[in-house]
Amino acid sequence: MRIAFRASAGSFEVEGDVMTAWVSSGVDRDEVDAEYITVQRSVETGRPLADWEEDGLHFEYKDQLYGAYGVLGACRLGRGAIAFDLAAPLEDLEGVGGFDVELAIDDASYEGLREGLPRLFDGTRVKFSTD
Q1: Separation of alpha carbons 108 and 85, rounded Å
Q2: pTM of the full predicted structure?
């Protein structure tokens, strides 16, 4: 099963020592009741990782409850959509194999994702592609 939603906002950001890509059905990723996905990791990609951090890449859907390290297997980005395929299940979302997000975001936000996602996924096991 896959979860689908429409994102009206999204971005790639570097804040301090963390880089984050996100899409949201709200006006931002903090809007109450919005569906969102965030993917983040440390800017310092060569730092030693704890065992629980897997490859250092954290994926979250809608709530920290549905987040984990090392679960993302692939990401495909196109101007109209972004897809996330899970390599392992998220706790409490058993049976969900991925997410299909329609992108209704502005050009600047899309370009930020297009330029930032390769940096975010570099050195991880995530297979990233663009249309």
Answers
A1: 25
A2: 0.90
CA atoms within 13 A on the CB side of 54: 16
Measured torsion, CA atoms of residues 91, 77, 27, 35, in degrees rounded to the nearest 10: -20
Give me the domain span that covers residue 54: 2-130
- pLDDT tens digits, residue range 8-53? 999 999 999 899 999 999 876 666 678 999 999 988 766 665 655 6
Give the total number of structural domains in the chain. 1
Q: What is the DSSP string of 27-62?
A: SSTT-TT--EEEEEEES-TTS---GGGTTS-EEEES
